Amino acid sequence: MKQFGKWLMAATLLCSLSALTSCDEDQRDNPANYDTSEEVIRNREEVLSHVKSDAKVVADNMNPEMFNLTNQVYSQLMALMVKDRNYMRNMKQVLAIMAANSALKKIRPVTYGSELAKMGYLMYIPVDIQTFGAQVVFDENGESRLFPCDGLEFIFPATVDGLGTTLYKVAFKAGDNWTEKIFPAQLNNVKGLACVYRVPKTLTMTLSGAFDNEVLTLSQITYDIGETQVSGQASTSLRGVGHGLPDVESSLNFQVGLMEDGKVNFDFGYQNNGRNIMTVAAQMALPKTGNFIELLSGLDMKGVSTDLDIQIFGDLRLYGQISDARQFSEAFTGVLKNHQDNQVSVRQFSDMIDRCNASANIYLTCQHAVQPLIIRLLSDWENNTNLFMPAVWSYESFDLIPFSALMGQGDVDNIYKAIYLMVPPVSAEILSIMQLYSRIMQMLPLNSAEWGL
Predict the structure, then answer these.
(1) What global pTM score does this model have?
(2) How many whole angstroms separate alpha carbon 306 and alpha carbon 320?
(3) How far is it, in rounded angstroms, from Cα 70 to Cα 173?
């Protein structure tokens, strides 16, 4: 799943550099579709004027503090889970023990004529994770202790920049709707015994932390769970009074699912303080898997082609295809990390940009554009600096023209600022949402052996 997160950040970064649109192949690649060079220039100026205005809105109004705060907390929880290699096994054992201890009190006769009776069962045990659960308490070394509680909770320490270390709680609560899975059980030699496991269709996660004895709710995520997809919304409310943080309201809608043709579809929409900022849609041809949860937790993007469609403010649109998502993500993550940094040589930095361009065909347009612009990245090779620059293909000179040659320095600065304000925190939030979901679902016992029945 980390590879998907890196890829998404890289792809979205390109969208912040400029945004692209769909168009058929003849329109994209044939400069003869333009009537005159004057039309080419007018079209380019129209698109770039939207890039400048939208980048300025993001640079002036985007507030990343809330995402940075929650992502620090999420990342530390995930790190603690990884550090304690036994936590998932222990969780399954605790849930199974609780189920077995309560099972004897819940054995019920099968109703005559019911589905269970038709399947040949005489007795059944209802198993519902709403009626029991576990609290996992981590220390700073990653060691965990387990306690019984209602539902599923994680208590863990986290150190937040500017706020110090405090205890956080992640609580999960199942909804009222569920699907039932039936499998045979063996308990005290009871013959014809079935286990009826209620799998929730909705799962809500609430993250909260205490600062100076004040409870501050940071985020609430609701997952709508299907056999081949998960969707929902993450709503975050940050009240920064007394903590040196701004007040922010935001939400992130998401849907990830397997399609009939075997591709995986990703859809995300981000809103900040009541304004629609960005939507991301991607389709990937991934290796076939029979387990949707395993797919989310172990995504490897090597050699995976991706169709990408991103919109900003419902105006700029990014569209294109990435031939190798892993190569693209690794190269573009390196470009972002080493921009204006001398940790790598100029040649290494230029090679990263070349790999980005080699693995992606990206196009940019806006609402009133006649045709999309071909977008690539350029390195500042001639000046011997590690800088990347978005550039547009010129049909007049058949060459790439950097944005810096087509707009003022202030506009270019806004584009870079918008990238760093928007892309890393939002993509990290998406990654955290998917990782937490896959980990929680993986630790739930899913068959009679794991339930100990």
Answers:
(1) 0.71
(2) 8
(3) 20
